[in-house]
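For consistency, the fold was encoded as tokens, which produced the following:
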Amino acid sequence: MLKKLIIEDIDNFLKELGEGFTYVANEYKIKIGNIYNYIDLLLFNYIYNCFVVIELKITA
């Protein structure tokens, strides 16, 4: 639910993070060893030339 809301308003979310961020993908599949994992949100910061991985966890 939270991820869906962020993606629907990704422009404002990126502005809140600051300068240099761009959206790459959501549910990005990566392989670590023999196990596949999914990154909730994958961003790139072109000022620092690095990827930013966001894992969303919600607890009650």
Notes: The beta strands are 21-32, 35-45, 50-54. The longest strand covers residues 21-32. The CA atoms of residues 20 and 46 lie 5 Å apart. The chain has one domain: 2-54.
